[in-house]
């Protein structure tokens, strides 16, 4: 029942707030290990969140874990997605998302429990070759938190406002935004927690 009302009762990504303003926070995120899948949404009938099931199968959230041990891996929050044009070129978020001359490619990440940090060799290997395990180094992001459903229009507006606020205050943006969602799809929209995160120097 708590999940319907937005209670987050799983491990969340570790970070330190190094600056807080009325418009955003600057956060320093600790190193972590992620499981990720990169895909063309058309592989999942156009569903941009189609990679979720593949990652959930890997950790065993939907049944027997699809990894070599097999070991059930605890779910954490948030689930992180980023989008780019295929061929590796990142594109700015617009409303609606426009992909000129190419297809949109989505990368979805699950951050693995902190017990695997600095121990990537202990992470169970995925049976599905589309799932990649990799280490993330310490990094800084400008972050804004918001509720409701993270539609493309809402996300685009949040990203644009955050980018302008960061640049106004002298922060150097060094990459494209990430979308972080903390709740399952059945959480009632008013109780959802989402973030847009833009990497800064």
From TrEMBL:
Q: Which SUPFAM superfamilies match?
A: Probable bacterial effector-binding domain (SSF55136)
Q: Name one Pfam family in it.
A: SOUL
InterPro entries in the record? Reg_factor_effector_dom_sf, SOUL_heme-bd
PANTHER family given for it? Answer: HEME-BINDING PROTEIN-RELATED, SOUL HEME-BINDING FAMILY PROTEIN
User: To which protein family does this belong?
Assistant: Belongs to the HEBP family.
Protein name (database record)? SOUL heme-binding protein
Top-down, what is the taxonomic lineage of the species of origin?
Eukaryota, Viridiplantae, Streptophyta, Embryophyta, Tracheophyta
């Amino acid at each position: 029942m708590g999940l319907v009302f937005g209670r987050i009762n799983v491990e969340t990504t570790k970070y330190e707030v190094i600056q807080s303003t009325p418009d955003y926070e600057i956060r320093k995120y600790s190193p972590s290990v992620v499981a990720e899948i990169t895909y063309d949404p058309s592989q999942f009938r156009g569903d941009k969140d189609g990679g979720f099931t593949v990652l959930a199968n890997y950790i065993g959230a939907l049944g027997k874990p699809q990894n070599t041990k097999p070991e059930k891996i605890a779910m954490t929050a948030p689930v992180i997605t980023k989008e780019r044009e295929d061929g590796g070129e990142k594109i700015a978020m617009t409303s609606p998302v426009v992909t000129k001359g190419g297809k949109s490619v989505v990368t979805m990440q699950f951050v693995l429990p902190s017990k695997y940090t600095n121990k990537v060799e202990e992470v169970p290997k995925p049976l599905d070759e589309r799932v990649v395990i990799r280490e993330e180094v310490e990094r800084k992001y400008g972050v804004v938190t918001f509720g409701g459903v993270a539609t493309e229009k809402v996300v685009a507006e949040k990203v644009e406002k955050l980018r302008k606020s960061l640049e106004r205050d002298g922060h150097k943006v060094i990459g494209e935004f990430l979308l972080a969602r903390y709740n399952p799809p059945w959480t009632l929209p008013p109780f959802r927690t989402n973030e847009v995160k833009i990497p800064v120097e």
